[in-house]
Amino acid sequence: MVLPPIGRHLHYISRVAQKSFNAALGEAGGSLPMWLILLSIKHKGADTQQELARAVGIEGATLTHHLDSLEAEGLVTRTRHTADRRAIRVALTPAGEERFDALHDAASAFDKRLRVGISEDDINLTRDVLTRIGQNVAPGDFDELVVPTDEVLGS
């Protein structure tokens, strides 16, 4: 049996997993961008829009679009930073905290689903191999990537 190149296999698995994860987040009232933004506000210490864009890995204009939607839903507030009036601080509202909790539960359940039938040793090996692949492909970019820990996800 001829196996596909690892890059193609990674691409396919990534697409399937992302589609399923988006569906799980959708059932909890969210989306992947919403989850990443709320997660970064809650756990990464991302205080300003600029820090938040860097933590989530998106451009400032794209983040602004998402924050407009989150603010309209009453999930976040934006205020001028007291020390630097050019900077905008972003914080979760009580409704944002509730949505975060719902999405956190969905993310944790999805993570458990991914792990079914796989030993903890195999999970750790997979994480190590994927990290090395990422470093091989884009050493500088990959080192700056912010990946939520199991502790943050509650796994």
- Helix % is 55-70%
CATH architecture classification name of the domain at 27-116: Orthogonal Bundle
- Topology as a string of helices (H) and strands (E): HHHHEEHHHH
Give the biggest beta sheet. Answer: 2 strands, antiparallel
* Uncertain residue segments: none
CATH class bucket of the domain at 27-116: Mainly Alpha
C-alpha Rg, in Å?
A: 17 Å
Give the N-to-C terminal Cα separation.
35 Å
Strand proportion, as a percent range, falls in 5-15%
Question: What fold name goes in the CATH topology slot of the domain at 27-116?
Answer: Arc Repressor Mutant, subunit A
Order of strands, widest sheet: 1-2
The CATH homologous superfamily of the domain at 27-116 corresponds to: Winged helix-like DNA-binding domain superfamily/Winged helix DNA-binding domain
Overall, the morphology is globular
Structural class by secondary-structure content:
mainly alpha
The residue-averaged pLDDT reads 87
* Discrete helix count: 8
The total beta strand count reads 2
Summed up:
The protein has eight helices and two strands; from the N terminus they run H-H-H-H-E-E-H-H-H-H.
Notable characteristics:
mainly alpha, 6% strand, two-stranded antiparallel sheet, 155 residues, 8 helices, Arc Repressor Mutant, subunit A
